[in-house]
Amino acid sequence: MMHKDISTALRKTAAFFLVMMAVLLVYISYIQIIASDTLASHPLNRRSAELLRQIERGQLIDRNGEKLAYSEQDENGIYRREYPLGAIAANITGYTSATYGLAGLEGTYNRYLSGLANPERRLGAIGQLWPSKKGANVVLTIDSELQKAAYKALGSRRGAVVVLNPKTGAILAMVSKPSFDPGTVDTEWGTLSSAVSSPLLNRAVQGLYPPGSIIKVLMAEASLQEKITTNTKTYRCEGLLKIGSDYVLHEANNQAHGKIDLEQALVVSCNVTFGQLALDLGRNNMAKTYTRYGFNKIAMPDLNEQPVVLPDFNRLGDGDLAQTGIGQGSLLVTPIKMAMLAATFANGGTTMQPYIVQKVLAKDGTTMEEFSPASWLSPVSGALAAQVSKMMVAVVEEGTGSAAAISGVSVAGKTGTAENPHGAPHAWFIGFAPASNPEVAIAVVVENGGSGGGIAAPVARQVISQALR
Fold first, then answer.
1. Of 30, 299, 331, 449, which is least surrounded by CB within 10 A?
2. What is the model's pLDDT at position 25?
3. CA–CA separation, 265 vs 256, rounded Å?
């Protein structure tokens, strides 16, 4: 009986160890075959970071062949990363550091740039017999000259500029200020990481701001879409909107606009009209509108885009709902999302997937991966998009966006002056040009800049002028 018990115990023990060996084998296979690229190219993998100092890292190249990042070998055979545009494109390129890891496209496309995507890397230690000596080049959609122009246009102000092709979704320029020199991250990390101005933050895709009046283009579309209003219906603005017994929505400077229709309300950026439209739309339609335009989705994960902060519409009081209709309250958006909104109207109602990488080229010049324009959403009909576009043209020709006007070019746009609890209002402008056949869509935000028409619109004019040359 005792021998039988021992035999049974041994069989169970053997079976247990066999199962554990099988699990271990599966796990090792998963690590080596499936997860190897991800783990090897992870920005915080110190062993890979040290190994890559011996490899000529691939280049980041703009659409015209200008280098944004490349590697040079020093006298000790160690490769050092060079960034010709420095701070101008730092929010795009990111940085490489053996101590602090990788960021930006340097991190997202590390497996290509480092050569870790080469097939022999899957062989683990055996692959070291045929080590990669050079990484692949990553070709971007960015136009360096436009990037420089946008950086210059922002001047010494904090903020961001996003420029994209509304027909394809290609990002032509993406600027964030203040910025940093990617080549000095190791020596300046303490200062950069603790700075109140957050230079390491890519404001174009990670900065969250109240949109202010630029959101009124969306409210105009939603009101027409849901048949809350028409192009001929008029509203009366007496400088304030009483909501309930204890809430009043004020017009800027308490200015009374009198009797106006929807287009005129957009031209003069009437808070009373758009606050009333938000109330008329109601909570469900407001929530549906933001979902329809993809405000609840991430469009650019390769640059770690931050999600928009949307209110819980069902819990908003009437006053807060009206505030959301004029871009205030708890609503927070990113510049990339607002550039995409402008691009949707420019592109006849179709939102294209924004992308910043065109293709990846192997060291022998062959294409390893290529990215093509793709539709992301179709939130609005072409006819309705055209109506909103016409209103946006009137904003620049007759209203608050006149500082964005360009001689000989029809520009569509909308300004915003977004109040915030941290100082002076943020200045916004979104738009596109030429209005009849748009080539560029743009979003500009200047932190604590004040007037959107006075500060952000001139920045947009300079950038659009460069883009259309």
1. 30
2. 72
3. 11
373 SS3 class = coil
Q: Is the pTM of this model over 0.85?
A: yes
pLDDT in tens, 230-246: 999 999 999 999 998 88
Return d(Cα 425, Cα 210) in angstroms, integer.
Answer: 9
The span from the CA of 247 to the CA of 370, in Å, is 54
Output phi, psi for 216, to 5 deg: -65, -25
**421 preceded by cis ω (within 30°)?**
no
Give the tokens for residue 388.
């909103």
Share of the chain above pLDDT 70, in %: 89
Per the annotation, the verdict on 213 as an active-site residue is yes
Query: Which residues have CB under 8 Å from 207's CB, separation 6+?
Result: 160, 176, 201, 306, 334, 335, 445
pLDDT digits (tens, 9 = 90+) for 81-92: 999 999 999 999
Task: Identify the sign of the CA torsion 247, 252, 258, 262.
Answer: negative
Task: Select which of 213, 269, 389, 451 is catalytic.
Answer: 213
Residue 309 C-alpha from the chain's centroid: 14
Q: How far apart are alpha carbons 441 and 451 in whole angstroms? A: 20
**pLDDT tens across 409-449, in order?**
999 999 999 998 888 999 999 999 999 999 999 999 999 99
Provide the CB-side half-sphere exposure for 451 (13 A, CA). Answer: 12
Helices and strands, counts by H and E, the chain: 16, 19
Contact 77, 87 (CB under 8 A): no
